[in-house]
Amino acid sequence: MKKRGFTLVEIMIVVAIIALLAAIAIPGLIRTRLAANESSAISTLKTIGTVAETFRSQQSTPGYPATFTALTSATPPYIAGFTIAGDIGDKAGYHFTFAGTTDGFGAVANPVTTGVSGNRSFCVDQSGLLRAATVTSPATNLLTAATGGCSASDTILQ
């Protein structure tokens, strides 16, 4: 009786075809995830800008919240859905920070890992303009909410 099965050559050809398909598909999937994270960060910053204005309008003496925690720990919270560590909120591959005074605020979204979770940093301030900055060196080029986040050299998105 003759046993039938696959030869080593046939199995190697199938494995090579699967590896080739994976090599073609994986970079596209990574780029798609990166674009989705950036889109989520933009949407979240728009919401944070709106929430900061809502917070200000509901105060007896109008003023923006001083920290991100003031927005997330209120009862009921002005905004939710973040993993909070100190005064930094994480969501969809981005760190969100917030700094406010009576007269203004800055909210910033920086990628957790540049090139993996995002390529650009985003910011919004009391003007309502959403801006983007390309992050070339994470240690020196990340935006910070404490400095207002946005600068005139950043690209205006909306």
Indicate the structural class. Answer: alpha+beta
Order of strands across the widest beta sheet?
Answer: 1-2-3-4-5-6-7
Provide the succession of SSEs: HHEEEEEEHE
Give the fraction of residues assigned to helices: 25-40%
Number of domains: 1
What percent of residues are in strands? 15-25%
Overall, the morphology is elongated
Count of DSSP E strands? Answer: 7
Number of helices: 3
Alpha carbon gap, first and last residue: 74 Å
Task: Output the keywords.
22% strand; single chain; 158 residues; alpha+beta; elongated; 7 strands; 3 helices
Protein described:
With 158 residues, the chain is α+β, with helices and mostly antiparallel strands. It has helices at 8-57, 68-72, 138-141; strands at residues 83-85, 88-91, 94-100, 105-111, 120-125, 130-134, 155-156. A seven-stranded antiparallel sheet has the order 1-2-3-4-5-6-7, covered by helices on one side. The N and C termini lie far apart (74 Å).
Element layout with pairings:
Layout: H1 8-57, H2 68-72, E1 83-85, E2 88-91, E3 94-100, E4 105-111, E5 120-125, E6 130-134, H3 138-141, E7 155-156
Antiparallel strand pairs: 1-2, 2-3, 3-4, 4-5, 5-6, 6-7
